[in-house]
Amino acid sequence: MLTGEHCYLDTTDECYFTDEYESCGRPAMKGQILSLKRGNESAIVGMAQQLASAMPREWIRNYTFVPMPPSSGTTSPARSILRRQHFTDTRDLLVQLGDTPSSHNGWRPMPDQRARLLTLNELEVHPQPNAIVIVDDVLATGSHFRAAKMIVRQRWSHMRVIGVFLARVCWRRGTACGLDSIRQRNGCACRLERGSAATAEYF
What we know:
Layout: E1 2-3, E2 14-17, H1 30-37, H2 41-54, H3 57-62, E3 64-67, H4 77-82, E4 89-90, E5 94-96, H5 111-115, E6 118-120, E7 132-139, H6 143-155, E8 161-168, H7 180-183, E9 188-191
Parallel strand pairs: 2-8, 2-9, 3-4, 3-7, 7-8
Antiparallel strand pairs: 1-9, 5-6
């Protein structure tokens, strides 16, 4: 478990990742993620296989998998990957209401700012999920995940909401997370090993 490396996460959040975006100066997953964002078919297939091999069987059978909607544009790497899975329940449950500026341009929104741009897709809310697994490409500050979790829990206040990411970026040494007091929160993320039975407290 890694604490304090994703400034908007705290110990109530349940987040997992399969690999590092960059590691000790090595590209790690960076090249594959960039290919995925460009819609490269081999990258999509490879990432889909990697994700499926790491998923606990209980999740595949019983949980609802939801792609994180893209911040801008129409291409969703997470949706591309989930379309190639054979999970029991996959839904486009979250909808982005408008484009947001790229984080590369310096816009680092807090979760409540992001939450104003998200809503539930009312066509997908029934039946009520047992638990929701939100899938995204990269975990950085955790702001997008926290916003999505807020929206889900406005409808189902005690819903288990899990974040699964293909890679993560450590922001512990960065200054992009906003206020110092927020940086001191104990954000938690765990590596999701192949076929692991990942569990955590989520209330």
